[in-house]
Design goal:
Strand order of the largest sheet: 3-2-8-9-10-11-1-12
Number of strands: 16
Radius of gyration: 22 Å
Number of domains: 2
Largest sheet: 8 strands, mixed
Shape: globular
Length: 418
């Protein structure tokens, strides 16, 4: 439902050229955190204020319009993405303590609903499912017949999407929806979706979206965007529309016009979040840096820690690699082809007739980070990393992408790293 013009122009380096020194780059990165607050461009007349019952009304309105509500909720000691029956299932009063290889939920003193950092699941699992049937063939007396997938494409309302994930969806849109060879399933799910963004107020220790210009405020790619403001006296959600569909739904909700005080409070929320990022990544000159260090011994050092498990690719919101599996039933009369997520850390991912091209863990890790940060800009016009920090948090041994880039630069990352 999001208008094409609303795609976020984010994740594009805004730092000095490689001819400038490290001190200048560090100063520029600090400025990014203050400059990339999208709410600075929001007009007061375009904002309405919802109360917690108003937020519930938004969820109910979308369900009433035929959408399947998907949003964050607490399951198995984590904030996960699931289909919800109402706003009551959102993670009211929960926060997250995350670092490299570590994730813990913790209770808040208030009832904030979007105060948690991103969980282990990216939104791509609803737009590009981990497993899907492509076709099924049956053999009959007169030959073969091919059946398309039986289930109709769902209409999802994605509720509470963070700015880093909006940027990731925009990346996947370029690859799977608007490229020369689009994926019909992805494009259909995307066209049927309604996106409710939630500006980030409490980044985790592994977050670095502001370094890449991908947050913490939503800059586009949404139908409705929310900024949650929680003080001792009030609990508000400042809502703004980003599409015609968003413009249509907001007047149906119980709300009041925003005041200058409301908007100043919302700007303070995202401005403070931009300065509290747990990590930083200098995006300046990354393609050249990675190309120059192709044979660096540092890759072997990383490989001694890396389990080649593929967790980083599974939790990454931009990774889109898949494989296909063909199978027949025991009678030989029914065959089907299914698509599954794949990972470049799998030894068979690069298998050719003579064996795997990237047989070592060091080669596979180098390929992953080089593709994310080195060759994606040439392919897709943006980096393949949005600064969500999931790959750091959910790596079993705590490998930190910001630390590995800092090591190649010959320094120590600001804000953390193992």
């Amino acid at each position: 439902m999001v208008a094409d013009s609303a795609s976020p122009e984010t994740c594009r380096p805004r730092t000095p050229t490689t001819t400038e020194g490290a001190a200048a780059r560090a100063a520029a990165l600090a400025d990014v955190a203050l400059a990339d607050v999208a709410l600075a461009d929001v007009a007061l007349a375009d904002v309405v204020v919802l109360s917690p019952p108003g937020l519930a009304a938004l969820a109910n309105a979308l369900i009433g319009d035929g959408y399947r509500l998907v949003g964050p909720t607490v399951r198995s000691e984590a904030v996960v993405l699931e289909e919800l029956e109402s706003a009551d299932e959102l993670p009211w009063g929960w926060d997250v303590d995350a670092d490299a290889g570590r994730y813990r939920l913790r209770r808040r003193a208030d009832r904030a609903v979007f105060a948690h950092a991103v969980g282990p699941q990216p939104w791509k699992r609803f737009l590009l499912p981990p497993a899907s049937l492509l076709w099924r063939a049956r053999r009959g007396e007169s030959g073969f017949s091919v059946d398309p997938p039986e289930d109709p494409l769902p209409r999802y309302a994605l509720f509470g999407v963070r700015s880093c994930d909006l940027a990731a969806i925009a990346v996947q849109d370029r690859v799977l929806a608007t490229s020369a060879h689009p994926d019909s399933g992805y494009r259909g799910r995307r066209a049927r979706s309604f996106v409710v963004a939630a500006d980030c107020a409490t980044p985790a220790g592994t977050c670095f979206c502001s370094s890449l210009g991908c947050g913490p405020a939503a800059a586009g790619g949404y139908d409705v965007a929310l900024t949650e403001v929680v003080t001792g006296e009030e609990h508000l959600f400042l809502a703004r529309a980003g599409s015609a569909a968003g413009d249509a739904v907001l007047p149906r909700l119980p709300s009041r016009p925003a005041t200058p005080h409301d908007l100043d409070a919302a700007r303070a929320v995202v401005g403070e979040a931009a300065q509290r990022m747990g990590r930083r990544l200098d995006p300046d000159g990354l393609p050249e840096l990675l190309a120059a260090h192709r044979e660096d011994p540092h890759w072997n050092e990383v490989a001694q820690r890396c389990l080649s498990c593929g967790n980083c690719t599974l939790v990454c919101p931009t990774c889109f690699c898949t494989t296909v599996v063909d199978a027949t039933d025991v009678t030989g009369t029914v065959a089907e082809r299914r698509r599954h997520w794949d990972s470049c850390f799998d030894l068979d991912f690069s298998y050719l007739h003579a064996g795997s091209v990237r047989a070592s863990t060091s080669a596979r890790y180098r390929h992953w980070i080089s593709h994310k940060l080195g060759t994606w800009p040439e392919q897709f016009g943006t980096a393949g990393c949005v600064g969500c920090g999931r790959c750091i948090t959910w790596c079993p041994v705590g490998i930190d992408i910001t630390a590995e880039i800092a090591a190649l630069r010959g320094g120590v990352p600001e804000g953390g790293g193992l």
